[in-house]
Specification:
Blueprint lengths: L5 H16 L8 H13 L3 E6 L3 E8 L4 E7 L26 H18 L4 E8 L7 H7 L2 H4 L4 E12 L2 E4 L3 E3 L1 E10 L3 E2 L9 H19 L6 E10 L5 E2 L2 E10 L2 H17 L7 E8 L4 E2 L2 H12 L6 E4 L10 H7 L2 E9 L18 H16 L3
Parallel strand pairs: 3-4, 3-5, 5-16, 6-15
Antiparallel strand pairs: 1-2, 2-4, 6-16, 7-14, 8-12, 8-13, 9-11, 10-12
Length: 385
């Protein structure tokens, strides 16, 4: 079992707070990437920069053997921080509100520990991925040949998880996170005087019926065994109180836990948009903005990760095959291209953590030795001497 030296833990905690003070948005993480690259070079790793613009892959080789990858996300969010501690964001309107500062520090700590201990035989690629938040940096890395340039048998990632206590881990052999797609609906009718609705075709009435109809898509058109969420989150129509508008705009998000369900929901939503407004003399059109696929763990790698966590000092409980989250994660692109697994690391201490993407969130530094420990355990058990 890997015992992480206190010096490495304390150094990783300092890195984490330094990253927190200087957040950068996706594909703009130039200063962050520079610091990461310099640290990795100081550990003696082979460092490759500029992948997906600001991404980094660092390679540690120790003899002949299998190759695995460990990934951390490095970007921040456009949120104004409301904390008042010493390491608050120095960049107004930006903050590390999802813990990517902690994920990065954990992976750096693991890279330093493994470069010094070398209790493994094989190769580890440390992947520092930009733009996890909305810009799809994982997709960009795969498209730019991540797995062709750095072949590996498996790839792994973690995320801190508020709502689960520190010392607990969750991993599943199937979906961990949902797919995420956005849709934009335009309903076009015939504008006119609000006092003479019979002379027009009201997109607002058609929109109201469509919104209600879409609520039945999940409950009546899918099997109860399928899991999906459709949320209508935006509605815009009209400019004057006495005018029936010509158009109405709707927008929302679709989340699914299987690609089959995802494709079925695309088909059904388009069917509703094309048919429901017709009886009101209104035409419906939908435009899709396809997002992240399902974050689907591979069974063998999930079992390997489970075993590694169970043999990590400080991990008290491993939840296996737990219920997935309907949030989304672009590590899904890496899992589509390479076998691997993704896990949650409990974040709640004596006081529950603020939720992810909350302006009062801060990464719990007590997770750092646990995260480094899991990565070290995974490498040492996967790449045995």
């Amino acid at each position: 079992m890997a015992l992480i030296p206190q010096q490495i833990i304390e150094q990783a905690q300092r890195w984490r707070r330094d990253f927190h003070t200087r957040p950068e948005l996706g594909l703009q993480e130039h200063a962050t990437a520079k610091i990461i690259a310099e640290l990795l070079q100081s550990f003696g790793l082979e460092v490759h920069s500029g992948i997906a613009q600001t991404g980094i892959v660092a390679t540690l080789r120790n003899g002949e053997g299998p190759t695995i990858g460990l990934r951390a996300d490095i970007d921040a969010l456009p949120i104004r921080e409301l904390n008042d501690f010493a390491h608050i964001s120095c960049h107004p309107g930006l903050m590390h509100a999802c813990g990517h500062d902690g994920h990065t520090a954990i992976l750096l700590g693991a890279a330093r520990y493994l470069s010094e201990s070398r209790h493994f035989r094989g190769t580890v690629h440390f992947i520092f991925q930009p733009a996890e938040e909305n810009a799809g940096g994982g997709r960009l890395m795969v498209q730019e040949g991540l797995f062709e340039r750095f072949p590996m048998q498996a790839v792994y990632a973690l995320h801190n998880w508020p709502g689960m206590p520190v010392g607990e881990v969750a991993v599943s052999q199937g979906p961990m996170m949902a797919s995420q797609d956005n849709f934009y609906i335009t309903l076009t009718g015939k504008g006119g005087h609000a006092a003479m609705p019979e002379l027009g075709a009201d997109p607002i009435v058609a929109g109201a019926q469509l919104i209600l109809a879409l609520q039945t898509l999940i409950s009546r058109r899918l099997s109860p065994l399928e899991q999906a969420v459709i949320s209508l989150t935006q509605l815009q129509a009209g400019e004057a109180i006495n005018v029936i508008p010509e158009t109405l705009q709707l927008a929302g998000t679709l989340r699914c836990l299987s690609n089959q369900t995802r494709q079925r929901c695309w088909q059904l939503l388009e069917e509703y948009v094309n048919s429901v407004p017709v009886s009101y003399g209104v035409k419906g059109e939908v435009r899709w903005e396809l997002g992240y696929p399902v974050t689907q763990n591979h069974p063998q790698q999930a079992e390997i990760l489970r075993s590694a966590a169970e043999h990590t000092p400080g991990i008290r409980q491993v939840h296996f095959n737990n219920a997935p989250s309907m949030a989304a994660e672009d590590f899904a692109y890496l899992l589509e291209a390479c076998p691997g697994a993704y896990f949650w690391l409990g974040a709640d201490g004596a006081t529950p953590s603020a939720s992810l993407h909350n302006p009062r969130y801060d990464f719990n530094d007590d997770l750092i030795p646990l995260g480094i420990g899991v990565w070290a355990s995974l490498v040492e058990r996967s790449l045995k001497l």
